[in-house]
């Protein structure tokens, strides 16, 4: 394994951390170890991409750290909060108040306008949006002229912009994206990735995204590589070529060559 050294001037503040995290499905001969004692931190104001071959555990890792899935053993913290100690209602509140989500399928409500979709999580929580922040987010993702449109009146790229704005609008501590550009063409995907990168650089947001695309990973500050449910490498300041070169070290079964 080759790991790029962490430079001394990088922030040490961590938005989320997994420690000795394991996720096991089934028992006996049918047992599958999706995560095998993974320890990783995601620093504040940084965009991290998680990559690996199919079945490597990358989506499982994100879902466990984001509180969307349970884990078998180990620890997950969002800020100072230990997820394993939370009851269902507490976990729901934490996801609502501290975590933003961007999914490949957009997950917009078809009967609501773009603006109503953006503010929906806050409406459900009974919180009023910070108008100045909301305006900043909407302007950043270029939706000012589309706020009254419903999802069916928007292109795929515009719908994903709405999803990005929805994730940012509540000012969460961390945003998780599961293949956020997977359903987009290359131009729309580049726009969405640019918005995510700008949210980190200009707004101080923390973003963690799962992707299989080296071009998408090149927008990140750091790439974490998984294979066989373990972290096997990481790369800072990635380019599409350097990510592709690292990925070539994995065979089709996810093992390092």
From TrEMBL:
Alphabetized InterPro entries for the sequence: AAA+_ATPase, ABC_transporter-like_ATP-bd, ABC_transporter-like_CS, ABC_transpr_LolD-like, MacB-like_ATP-bd, P-loop_NTPase
GO molecular function, one term: ATP hydrolysis activity
Keyword Hydrolase tagged: no
PROSITE patterns: ABC_TRANSPORTER_1, ABC_TRANSPORTER_2
One term under GO cellular component: plasma membrane
Keywords attached to this entry: ATP-binding, Nucleotide-binding, Transport
Gene3D superfamilies given in the database record: P-loop containing nucleotide triphosphate hydrolases
Domain ABC transporter: 16-253
Keyword Transport part of the UniProt annotation: yes
Pfam families per UniProt: ABC_tran (PF00005)
Record protein name field: ABC transporter
Organism: Streptomyces shenzhenensis
């Amino acid at each position: 394994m080759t790991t790029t050294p962490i430079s001394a001037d990088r922030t040490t503040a961590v938005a989320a951390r997994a420690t000795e995290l394991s996720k096991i499905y089934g028992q006996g001969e049918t047992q599958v170890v999706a995560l095998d004692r993974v320890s990783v931190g995601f620093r504040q104001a940084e965009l991290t991409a998680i990559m690996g071959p199919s079945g490597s555990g990358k989506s499982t890792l994100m879902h466990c750290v984001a509180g969307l899935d349970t884990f078998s053993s180990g620890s997950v913290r969002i800020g100072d909060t230990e997820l394993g100690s939370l009851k269902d209602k507490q976990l729901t509140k934490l996801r609502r108040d501290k975590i933003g989500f961007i999914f490949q399928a957009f997950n917009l409500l078809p009967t609501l306008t773009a603006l109503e979709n953006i503010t929906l999580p806050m409406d459900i929580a009974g919180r009023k949006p910070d108008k100045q922040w909301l305006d900043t987010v909407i302007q950043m993702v270029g939706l000012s002229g589309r706020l009254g449109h419903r999802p069916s009146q928007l292109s795929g790229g515009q719908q994903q912009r709405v999803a990005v704005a929805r994730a940012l609008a509540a000012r969460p501590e961390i945003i998780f994206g599961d293949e956020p550009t997977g359903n987009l063409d290359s131009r729309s995907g580049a726009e969405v990735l640019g918005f995510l990168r700008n949210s980190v650089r200009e707004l101080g947001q923390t973003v963690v995204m799962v992707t299989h695309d080296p071009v998408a990973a090149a927008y990140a500050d750091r790439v974490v590589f998984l294979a066989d449910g373990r972290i096997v490498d990481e790369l800072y300041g990635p380019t599409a070529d350097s990510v592709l070169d690292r990925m070539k070290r994995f065979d089709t079964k996810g093992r390092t060559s």
